[in-house]
Amino acid sequence: MLGGTFDPIHHGHLRSAIELREALGLDHVRLIPCHQPPHREAPGVSSEERLAMLEVAIAGEPGLMADDRELFREGPSYSADTLASLRAEYGPQARLVMAIGHDAFLKLGEWHAAERLFDDAHVVVIERPDHDAPLPPALEALIAGREVETVQALMARPGGQLLRLSLPTRMAISATFVRERLALGDSVRYLLPETVIRHIEAHDLYRPQSE
Ligand code: ATP
């Protein structure tokens, strides 16, 4: 699972998903748009539009799947609930992984039912540029005794462990940067797929602010 607001999806997400799948030998990576983000402001673009951009971005890539399960849940979209539903679907023996970028990882100790995340899945932290910040005490406590050093050790169990992973491509692209450029009417070419750019244009999303 790679969850996110995907507001909008960009090449940083997509390369991470592909490289994560390869590095861990996963059957597939489910990209799961967050319907109501618990820890940040509501995105300016609807969940349905963010899902639609995700779908056009991954069309034709068999290893990646768009998963809309959070759109059907009321209230804040807690990852603990999403992982519980994936665990129920895949059964107790399947190896499940929740991947998060290092920026999101730094806040993991504050997440709703953070301990439950490890009941249902492994957590894999994708290192991003600028990831040297010290870990907050709540996070240190949460991950104590869970960290493993290798993919092999991680995949020996269905869940419960933590691995920090450096993927081959580390792109300093963020959705914030993409939104800022779109709001100014600046080019976002090569930051995200052309199909997504066309979707944004066709649906008048992230319009430049009028003066
Ligand atoms: P924003 O700028 O709006 O905060 P974002 O670009 O960080 O957005 P999210 O949808 O919040 O994107 O991210 C979903 C997940 O993907 C998070 O775990 C985030 O850390 C990770 N992620 C985002 N951008 C990258 C990137 N360039 N490389 C690796 N992981 C990324």
Automatic annotation (TrEMBL):
Pathway entry: Cofactor biosynthesis; NAD(+) biosynthesis; deamido-NAD(+) from nicotinate D-ribonucleotide: step 1/1
The keyword Transmembrane helix appears for this protein: no
Cross-referenced Gene3D superfamilies: HUPs
Transmembrane regions listed in the UniProt entry: none
SUPFAM superfamilies: Nucleotidylyl transferase (SSF52374)
InterPro entries listed in its UniProt record: Cyt_trans-like, NadD/NMNAT, Rossmann-like_a/b/a_fold
Catalytic activity: nicotinate beta-D-ribonucleotide + ATP + H(+) = deamido-NAD(+) + diphosphate
Keywords: ATP-binding, NAD, Nucleotide-binding, Nucleotidyltransferase, Pyridine nucleotide biosynthesis, Transferase
Lipid biosynthesis listed as a keyword: no
GO MF, any single term: nicotinate-nucleotide adenylyltransferase activity
Cytidyltransferase-like domain ranges (all copies): 1-181
One Pfam family in the UniProt entry: CTP_transf_like
EC number: 2.7.7.18
Organism domain of life: Bacteria
A Gene Ontology BP annotation from the UniProt entry: NAD+ biosynthetic process
Function: Catalyzes the reversible adenylation of nicotinate mononucleotide (NaMN) to nicotinic acid adenine dinucleotide (NaAD).
Family, per entry: Belongs to the NadD family.
Stated name of the protein: Probable nicotinate-nucleotide adenylyltransferase
Gene source species: Cobetia crustatorum
Gene this chain is encoded by: nadD
